[in-house]
Amino acid sequence: MIYQFEITGKCNLECETCFNWELMKKLEDIKIENILKKVSKRDIVYIGGGEPMIHPRVQELVEKLVEIPTEVVISTNGTIYKSIPNEAQIQVSVWTLNPNLYKEMLKGTENQLNNVKENIKRYISDGNSVLINMPVYEKNINEIQSVSDYADNLRV
Length: 156
Prior knowledge:
The chain is α/β, with parallel strands linked by helices. 38% of the residues lie in helices and 17% in strands. Strands 1-2-3-4-5 form a five-stranded parallel beta sheet, with helices on one face.
């Protein structure tokens, strides 16, 4: 089976294209025990949010999921680093590498964008499989090449 769990409604960015902004504000953190009851061996589990790295027990959840074993994929904005078992894939949304556009589109800071770049390198160094996901729309369509080149340079 394939499962997708939005484990928290909290997020540290305010992406202007967020389709769940109002809904996410109402969601409470999911209890990891409820997730663990639903999954079994060889399931594929996608973990998202809001920003899943904000969930206080995300590391424990992933550790228990890989013990089952399941295939685990975490979709994150990359601004927060947490050590995750290297059996899990980390999918980082990189909308742009331009600090001004990052601020405009995600209400993020240049420091947060720098954290994204550093955290991607940390996950690679930790042995996690890293995938860079680039949501594209009219404001960042001209960023495709720079983000693609960035991913190529990291070999992800």
